[in-house]
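Running this now, will post back.
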Amino acid sequence: MEHDFAKGVEELGRQIDSRIASYFSSCVHCGLCAEACLFYTETGDPRYTPIYKLEPMRRLWKEQHTFWGKFAVKLGLSKPLTEQDFADWEELVYDSCTMCGRCSMVCPVGNDIAYMIRKEREGFSTAGYSPVGMQEATHRALTIGSPMGVTLKTLKAALAHVEKDTGLKIPMDQQGADYMTLFSSMEIVNFPEYIESVARIFDAAGVSWTISSEAFEATNSGIQIGSHEAAGELVSRVVNAAESLGVKFVISPECGHAYSAIRWEGPNLIGRPYKFEIIHILELLDQLQKDGRLQLSGHTDTPLTFHDPCQIVRRGGVVGPPRDLLGKVASGFVEMADHGTMNWCCGGGGGVSANERAEELRLKVFDRKRKQLEELGVKTMVTACANCRIVLEEGIEDRDMDVEVIGLTELVAEYLTTKSAQ
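Update: finished.
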């Protein structure tokens, strides 16, 4: 991607809305956000202080929105943004922030730093200062339909294996179904057992569901790289498919940023409300269980813990359902010291896992999760995000740890009471 500094500065200025302006004006420079960021705690490098990553946007805000900033510009005393600033901050903006929002939780004046980074990325992306891996993933998402290059043919092949293994027919393009389910490319390629688990659970619970051949991908690369246009296009594809099929709900799978993109940012990106509701797979499973439609029998007494995906739990509010489900199938479930809305990120969200340049740093900050696991002494970790899962597995392998990572939906499916047994 070619660099366009002037266009990037213009876009960066456009992203400074009333929320961001109030956040910058209320910041008390306390530095508490640093201790909430695993990139700072695991490296000790002050450059990774979350609010510092916003310095280019802060300088532009000061010049354009404050009296003294405007006065300094008039007198020629202000130092304007340069293209070198974009080059210098790109690594901080993309490599050392997963937009997990933990820093936002501890800010004493309530500044949502994750939201600010999301907006800052819009300017950097427009200027062409974004990681090549994320650029390529976004291009594939727009042209092929998947950031990993997964095609409909690939999905159908995966579904054929599930049908063969389960004896179930996977519904596709079924008009009038209650639910349309999405998958992330990572689930299709790396964790097809998730698809099998969903099919078995929905069959046993009598759920009316379907997959759209027009929009099956959940991941939104536009959100990660910071492209409003790309993000809106990807959301529109899902919305158009769901409304065409006439479904009542769209199910977001075990993927963090997919959930935040389609549920929380989606309506704003397309400029209108949906004609259906968004529900996360864990919310649906918990609901089915409480309604008596999801019958479970037996449990595991293996000591295990739960890694909270940031965008699902902290940013998305799905705190209770995973714990309700674990309470039904795992008698050995124990919480990490920091858990729920304050759990630590896997280190690979926000597109960091798609950014090859950030691999060394990402593996370094995995030490925070390693410490959490070592404090508990468990050998099994459950999560509900395919991206978290593969990032955690890479960290575990790099640290030569004896820990297994499993998906919560799959764990629930292991203790599913089949129709014949009901």
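The mean pLDDT is 95. More later if anyone needs it.
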